[in-house]
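We store amino acids, tokens; thus:
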Amino acid sequence: MSKLSTMEEEREEDELTGKNFKSPDKLDKEPTKETYKDILIVRKKERGKIVEVNTTNLQKNLEFLKSRIRKGSKIFPVVKSAAYGHGITNVVSAIENLADGWCVALVEEAEKVRKISQKNILVMKGTFSDEEDQFCQKNNIWIVVRDFHDLKTKIKKGIKNLFIKLDTGMGRLGILKEELPKALELIKSEKAENLIIGAISHFAYSDLEDEKFVSEQIKSFSEMTSFIEKSLGKKLIKTLSNSAATIELANAHFDFTRPGIAIYGISPFGKNKKFELEPVLSVKTKVISTKKIPKGWSVGYSRKFIAEKESKIAILNIGYSDGLPRAWWENGFVYAKGKKLKIVGVISMDMTAVLCENVELYPGDEVIILGIEDGITVYDIAEKTGKITYEILCSIGLKNS
């Protein structure tokens, strides 16, 4: 498929519209911009689901987070994993004028961001090929060094704009405190001081639950970065804070913070401590069939649902391959025409059945799968399926945007 045809497909699937959007048939037409009550919604169809991104809430969330950071610190929203299911293009375009820079996991994500924004981008998992190194050098993109071996490789290649990853307690990527002297000796022996511009670490608690351990991480990061700066004779760009720390820990803000889930209106502290954050993502789908089933008839694999009376069901164009948790069938609901409808039977790979006794549904009608309605928020679905809110967003949201 040519690059041009791919771009045309994306245009056809995207839509900018207001909160009270018009006919869903418009999804198949050229994108439009319509604003209702100053709320702007981006709609994108992907497989059987229709994902809506409330860019107005997105902007408000970022403005709230910016109000929490200490003077002199900047904010680099995390837009990895298709911007937590919201779509990189959607998110970067909406908050480009509010963000100071960007964080991604992969170079391919950085490439999408760079097409929209010329602000600094930090690739948090680093690079994995000469081609990725060359792209980052050409486009002035910052690269995280994962460990000592990666540092040695990057120095040998003369790769610039490097951030040293420091393991202060997360236990994944990063150089440990006891490895620092060896790392610094390598940098100085190769006269590579000019290649190093920053340092990064990561909290082991997304919600800062263990205050003592979090404090120890802040202290360790401060000590390690001071040691590096003294040894190399230069100041580093330092970053440590996640969403929770951006909101609550000014002493961990350093040069820039890296909020992720809070940007998208979900509190890292859970549903009982939401602050001023407003959810950004909604997911809808369409009815593809309706039918009446007799008493005693079963629905779905393993016959988990048996009709106690003659019932009407609707089949929805979404399943677990679209990110809807299979376990959600036991407690799950959807909304259609203002009514709350129970999911019946096990969720299939690309179809879901709902009971629709209290509402008339027809093929083509839209159904809300995830939104702000009672019982189908990100918090609700995560809690009832034994997952975390991050997982719900990344699974049920957009995958390829």
About this structure: Residues 198 and 237 are 4 Å apart (CA to CA). The radius of gyration is 24 Å. The chain has a mean pLDDT of 91.
